[in-house]
Amino acid sequence: MTSLLVIIVLALLSVAIWQLTKIFDLTQVGSHVDNSQVANDKDNNVQGYIMFAFLAFIYIFTIYGLFTWSHLVLDNPASEHGVTVDRLMNITWVLIFTVQAITQALLYYFAFKYRGAKDQKALYFSDSNKLETIWSIIPAVTLAVLILYGLYAWTNIMFVDEKTEDVMIIELYGKQFAWEARYAGKDNVLGKANVRYIEGVNTLGVDMSDPYAQDDKTVTGEFHIPKGKKVLFKIRSQDVLHSAYMPHFRAQMNAVPGMVTQFAFIPTLTTAEMRSNPDMVAKVEHINQLRSKKNAELAAQGKPALDPYTFDYLLLCNKICGASHYNMQMKLVVDTPEEFKAWLEGKPTLTEVIKTAAATKEAPAASATAPAVAPEEAPVKEADSTAVGS
């Protein structure tokens, strides 16, 4: 409601200013007004100084933004390749800011220096091979270096040889609006899957006739990976285009219906190690301070308070996949190898889950078909039969 009132006030203020300009125009009737719409020296000088003012605004706002919002940029990558990605990103930022600072200064300086003046004529020349060579070669070389470095980084990140490398395979399955994870088991091979096999607890559509599927394990809510182990994620989608996004690992790959995509990385920081990082401790403390202030407002309104924030790695969806897209996330825990082994061994295989579900389903059905006999009727009947026999 407050936002609506602000919009209404701004709209009325705009109308009032517009009306005031009309009144001002009426007061100028009869006076000498230059309506030729041809710029004179005064106009050109004003525009030139406005150019410099706008250049100052750009620089001041840029510097202000760097100091104000730079802390929001993710740091401390939690994967091996994340260091390379951050380095490439930082090189790009430095180049962009350097080029922006130089080109904007030249642009507005020349706009001021060569502003219009009475009886001044512009020098015209058709071309300059020297200038064209300079402004073609410098960007070409700069972009070539960036592209080659990016291709080198991309190849190192994306190329995975499953036959020779020691990798652990995990499937990430996206659907509106949740993620599920499937571990390949001891054979490290995922069983075949198809949406036509989705039934009951087999929500991933795993083909249970496939021998490789017998030791697969599925989890929801959260999944774990071990520190120092290369994990190859096979990514699928049940319905629409999703995107498996794990920002702290600098990992993202689209989940495309009808095909399997993949992304691999080696985690370098456990969840506990990231939580104890000084930068992360400061961020969590800041978030909880904001939540404390918000809780005071909620308490005054009689609403439940927000829970204290604790850092967790998250698997997010980075594609707008529907109305509850913002809720599509799954907790990711990085363990030590020993902790991960104990956690995974405690999870049942999908085969065991299906058998348990089938047994649970059959048990009520068997109870429903059995004759309803009250426990106390048995001794009564026995006593009655004895009496008849005597």
Structure write-up:
The C terminus is likely disordered. The longest helix has 34 residues. It contains nine helices and ten strands. A hairpin with a 4-residue loop joins β6 and β7. It has 390 residues and is an alpha+beta fold. α2 packs antiparallel against α3. 48% of the residues lie in helices and 15% in strands. The chain has a five-stranded mixed beta sheet, with no helix packed on it. It has a domain of 152 residues: Immunoglobulin-like, CATH 2.60.40. It starts with a helix and ends with a helix.
Short description:
The protein has 390 residues and is an alpha+beta fold. 48% of the residues lie in helices and 15% in strands.
Descriptive terms for the model:
10 strands; 48% helix; five-stranded mixed sheet; alpha+beta; Immunoglobulin-like; 390 residues; 9 helices
List the helices and strands and how they pair.
Layout: H1 2-27, H2 41-69, H3 80-113, H4 129-158, E1 167-175, E2 178-183, E3 217-220, E4 222-226, E5 230-237, E6 242-246, E7 251-255, E8 261-265, H5 271-275, H6 278-300, E9 313-317, E10 329-335, H7 337-345, H8 350-369, H9 377-389
Helix pairs in contact: 2-3, 3-4
Question: Class by helix and strand content?
Answer: alpha+beta
Question: Radius of gyration over alpha carbons?
Answer: 34 Å
Q: Kindly estimate the percentage of residues that lie in beta strands according to DSSP.
A: 15-25%
The average pLDDT is 87
- Poorly predicted regions are 373-390
Question: Which of globular, elongated, flat, extended, rod-shaped describes the shape?
Answer: elongated
**Count of beta strands:** 10
CATH superfamily label of one domain: Cupredoxins -  blue copper proteins
How does the major sheet shape up?
A: 5 strands, mixed
* H and E order: HHHHEEEEEEEEHHEEHHH
Helix percent band: 40-55%
Q: What's the level 1 CATH class of one domain?
A: Mainly Beta
Strand line-up across the major sheet: 3-2-1-5-8
> How many angstroms does the end-to-end distance come to?
90 Å
Task: Write down the CATH topology of one domain.
Answer: Immunoglobulin-like
